[in-house]
Amino acid sequence: MRTVTTAPARPNRPTNVASEATATAAGPAGFWRGLHTPRRAFGREYRLSQVVFALVLGFCLTPWASPPLALALGLALAQTVGNPFSAQTKRLTPKLLQYSVIGLGFGMNAHAALQAGREGILFTVASLLGTLVLGYAVGKWLGLGRNLVHLISCGTAICGGSAIAAVGPVLRARDEEMSVALGTVFVLNALALFAFPPIGHALALTQNQFGLWCAIAIHDTSSVVGAAAAYGTQALQVATTVKLARALWIIPVSLGTALAFKQPGVKVKIPYFILGFIAAMLLNAFVPAIRPLAPFMTHLAKIGLTVTLFFIGAGLSTAAVRAVGVRPFVLGVVLWVVISVGSLYVIMHGA
């Protein structure tokens, strides 16, 4: 009789199974999932992504954080952890930028600002009209809708997101068109903030030249001020003054848009914060009691600008970049390159 020997059954190994589960949870997917898993502490619910966001925001409030670095941190956060407070930052960003611009007015020299505004007026008119005409031609060649073309052209010609936000309701533009236009100028703003200061140093631009170039060639006020602040104090004064004078063109362009696109009965948004900037500058110049507070107000304004750029970067997710599409981005790049190179040539040759 043949005896069959059977191997003993393997005992269960809960320890190994548990360790395998732990290893799986500790993997890349588990790590990112853990960042968004709700937890409780001190009777409150929180997520690790919110803690990371708060820590980076706290760093942006310190003297070690510059506007370009804050934007880079926001972009990195958007592509990795994400922005857990996207609704709040989207609501706060416009107001924080406006208050920061007003605060910068306390650090401006009224006489120098007036001179810079005079020098920049011809550049402003020529570049604004040229950008709108070129945008129409390139947009038609690319086969884009007229609303989207006009939004991107206005954003490039005047002051980025602020101009788009003002002209959009006049056009009765769809949300998709607004999102694509805003995404286009925000991506190019981020590139300009990093690219312009090294280019300025490489070309040995003066403070006045660089400030004027920033005001004309960079879309949003936030990036204009950020790039100019990285270059120098005088560049900051020139750039801020010329850019805000340029932003006043929102009003006539919005009215012209209503007529050209036959949109009666629309309301034009007036950028009142520019009046606040002018008032702060005049108070600093002609009210001696205000001057001791000016450095403190300017310091707060620069911190506000840094946080603003962090919020902008944190809102520029991969999905937002992809939503722009190729053709609208091509239009934005063509307009940006032409106005950047053209204005730089004129500025460097002393026109």
Automatic annotation (TrEMBL):
Protein's membrane topology: Multi-pass membrane protein
Subcellular location: Cell membrane
Membrane-spanning segments: 51-76, 96-114, 121-142, 148-168, 180-204, 210-232, 244-261, 273-291, 303-323, 329-348
Protein name per Swiss-Prot or TrEMBL: Sulfate exporter family transporter
Domain of life (superkingdom): Bacteria
Recorded family membership: Belongs to the UPF0324 family.
Region (Disordered), start-end ranges: 1-22
Major location (coarse): membrane
Keywords: Cell membrane, Membrane, Transmembrane, Transmembrane helix
